[in-house]
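Example 518, ligand iron/sulfur cluster.
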Amino acid sequence: MLDDREVERLEVEAVNSARTRQPLYTARQKVFPKLASGRFRQFKWLIMLITLGIYYLTPWLRWDRGPYAPDQAVLLDIANRRFYFFAIEIWPQEFFYVAGLLVMAGIGLFLVTSTVGRAWCGYTCPQTVWVDLFLVVERGIEGDRNARIKLDGAPWSFDKLWKRTAKHAIWLVIAVATGGAWIFYFADAPTLLGAFVTGQAAPVAYITVAILTATTYAFGGLMREQVCTYMCPWPRIQAAMLDENSLTVTYNDWRGEPRSRHAKKAAAEGLSVGDCVDCNACVAVCPMGIDIRDGQQLECITCALCIDACDSVMDKIGKERGLISYATLADYQSNMAVATDPVTTAIDPKRVRDDEGKLNAAIAHFRLGRIFRPRTFVYAGAWSLIGFALLFALLSRDRLEVNVLHDRNPQLVRLSDGSIRNGYTVKLLNMVPEPRNFELSIEGLPGAAMSVVGMDLPESRSITVEAEPDKLKTIRVYVRQPRENLADGQSFKFIVVDKAGSETDSYVAKFNVPEAGR
Ligand code: SF4
Ligand code: SF4
């Protein structure tokens, strides 16, 4: 165990300190986050690998849909107006599934934020993930915090020039790969890659990659924390979703204050000191350039790296971990009430410790039960409800649709034998990627029969229509009813049945007769 005097103290100022907040239009002060190590950093590495892996590799996954559909597992085929997601194929009229998923994502974000604060910002937001990736490159070339600060302040030399050139070159490669991966979601990835590198791709592909390359490079490499602080609306919105039982990264000043760099000396002098040794490790690792000890701040993305930094300091000086921790406002306030001297209203660290120097029993710790409260039940309920509704709709949806348009002009034709003929445009939608034979029949309309324009078949009440895979089949149909069966206000059904399966659909149509037609 180290004496608190042996803990390394870092000379670092919070550039975004709540105490010294800068006016809006001042030059950015650079942030040089130190590499943190600990459980939250490990977890963030894992999330980074998963999210980047999903983003870059998904367009290259194949999914066999047979010879009539693309074999890319996830494909937004704008030209043919289809969205493929593994075994699911979404047609334009079914886009409510995607809308439903977006609503679920929104409610899921509410649920997560009300429960564990800005976990989205701290772990999975693309801005966070790409900044982390760019920082990996920066640290790999320029070194950790101190080396980067030194290099930044050094005059231009060969060493600085090659390091800066290499860093920006790799950033640009990442940015191009990021923009490139995006366009692969919209066309067959191997084909598009070949066309792209040989200059054969559509101009929109090059424009999209150029825009995404520029934004990735600028947001991830140059602007970093400014995107979260100044451009993103989420920090402002999330405040409405937090309550006193939401978990947020908290500096527990009820045990940390009064902070001291010379705790042993202060204690020997009879002064009461808290656990914070004012080493600034938490400030040095913060990618947002803030000091969590200033309290909750809009800039904090709850990445928890300051928890890792502080925990390792607490380990070194033999104190309990958790001086900075995920805590609820309710627990924090309760612990502050324990720590505050009622007379002086100052924090007295002795009040939170027992005779053995351990945190006493009055100190509240997070309990899992706090997550379950009306707000989270409502969010979880709405999320599940929409999820089940979408799943049910997906599993029970038809892959066959029939639509019918009655001829407007003429509405009817009287034939030489006195029978009446009506014309219809019948649209058969085959929504599976394989050819199908449909039986089209009419139900009702006594004595009537139909014929299909362009098909040399005798009149019948039922015909077979071949439909191409994944296509709309349009046919012109004449329905004729003998004179003796004519009646006013007749309607009947076109019924379509998949001959190889059980799928069926129908459409109720009207049969027009002349006013005094019989
Ligand atoms: S204060 Fe802590 S949790 Fe918040 S952004 Fe900085 S390091 Fe992350
Ligand atoms: S809160 Fe922890 S990491 Fe931050 S200065 Fe105090 S002891 Fe160091």
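Summary: The pocket of iron/sulfur cluster (ligand 1) is lined by residues 249, 285-286, 288, 290, 292, 300-306 (CB under 6 Å).
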